[in-house]
Design brief:
Blueprint: E1 3-9, E2 13-20, E3 25-32, H1 39-61, E4 68-72, E5 75-77, E6 82-86, E7 91-94, H2 96-103, E8 109-113, H3 114-125, E9 133-139, E10 143-149, E11 152-154, H4 185-188, H5 190-201, H6 208-216, H7 220-244, E12 248-252, H8 260-273, E13 281-284, H9 291-303
Parallel strand pairs: 1-4, 4-8, 9-12, 12-13
Antiparallel strand pairs: 1-2, 2-3, 5-6, 6-7, 9-10, 10-11
Helix pairs in contact: 1-2, 3-9, 5-6, 5-7, 6-7, 7-8
């Protein structure tokens, strides 16, 4: 059976899969990155893991993988196949595409940015299926996005398209590592909500999930913290809606796990703010932590298409670069 190798590399762990031509996950596996052993050890772990997947495919499907795709955090130069920078992994100018291709017997290899790769999967086979234009927004430690147009993800002229987390929604507000003040991700990311709720309760271990549960139980303090985040998020999203006019707005990441505790007030806040704009369909991401692997698999299959679809090829800035 024809298949491709897909790898999704995070700060602490890797998810991998063998992906069929229809996007089906034929085999899944996980492995720690081993970043405590240094950046070279992480690369070695990736190469070994990929080789194991290739061998598994040969044993179980009768042939080696036809191509491979890998999604990584940090700054990515997809044209050169280089992981330019990843703070969590200690990487600087790692030629991942060439290293993987050599280890896997010279098969084509695609390299992509983690959030945009996950957004590609959500658009093609996930919550955005059938939408010609969509915006995927991941609410995690930071906030990052992917702009989907006709089955591809737009990277922008310099690779910075979709960095919605750095829209300034509170001018003069909390400083952001990017150098601005009042960025969206300082107020509406899962990390920001966790920080605000921990400060409100005096419990340093309290997090966004705790805040969401307290909102559901009717805690007025939690409702205040939550509404501040929802209002900031709505301000940022309406700016994006005004510029991009997406048909579907897909929200993923840790904060989206609150379900309607987030989506009900967020829909109301967006509808309250728009004037002439069309409100997109607002939906939760539905691929979960398989999105990165599926997206990497899609990138790999794209390499085998003739002609290949238009895909992001410019250097990509990571959400990780500004947590």
């Amino acid at each position: 059976m024809r298949h491709v190798i897909a790898l999704d590399v995070g700060g602490t762990g890797m998810k991998a899969a063998l992906v069929g031509a229809g996007g089906e996950l034929l085999h899944q596996a996980r492995l720690a990155t081993g970043r405590d052993r240094g950046p070279d050890a992480v690369v070695a772990s990736i190469l070994d893991f990929a080789a194991e997947l290739r061998a598994h495919g040969e044993r179980h499907f009768g042939e080696p993988a036809s191509a491979a795709g890998i999604a990584v955090p940090g700054i990515v130069d997809a044209d050169r196949g280089v992981a330019v920078y990843a703070a969590n992994l200690g990487w600087h100018d790692v030629p991942l595409r060439a290293l993987l291709a050599e280890r896997l017997g010279g098969i084509p290899v695609a390299l992509g940015h983690d959030v945009r790769t996950g957004g590609l999967a959500e658009g093609r086979v996930g919550a955005g299926l059938g939408a010609d234009r969509y915006l995927f927004v991941a609410l995690g430690t930071g906030i990052a996005g992917a702009i989907g147009v006709e089955g591809r993800v737009e990277a922008g002229a310099h690779g910075f398209a979709g960095e919605i987390g750095h829209i300034v929604v509170r001018p003069g507000g909390t400083p952001c590592p990017c150098g601005q003040r009042g960025c969206l991700e300082r107020f509406a990311s899962a990390a920001a909500v966790s920080q605000a709720w921990a400060a409100t309760t005096g419990d340093p271990g309290a997090d966004a999930a705790d805040c969401a549960r307290a909102v559901e139980y009717g805690d007025p303090r939690a409702r205040g913290v939550w509404q501040e985040a929802v209002d900031a998020l709505a301000d940022g999203l309406v700016t994006a809606i005004t510029l991009l006019d997406p048909r579907t707005l897909i929200i993923g990441g840790g904060l989206a796990e609150a379900g309607e505790t987030l989506f009900t007030p967020l829909r109301a806040a967006i509808e309250h703010r728009v004037t002439f704009q069309k409100v997109p369909t607002l939906v939760p991401a539905n691929l979960g932590d398989t999105a990165g692997c599926l997206g990497a698999g899609l990138l790999a299959w794209d390499l085998l298409m003739d002609p290949p679809p238009t895909t992001p090829t410019t250097p990509t800035d990571a959400s990780e670069a500004t947590p």
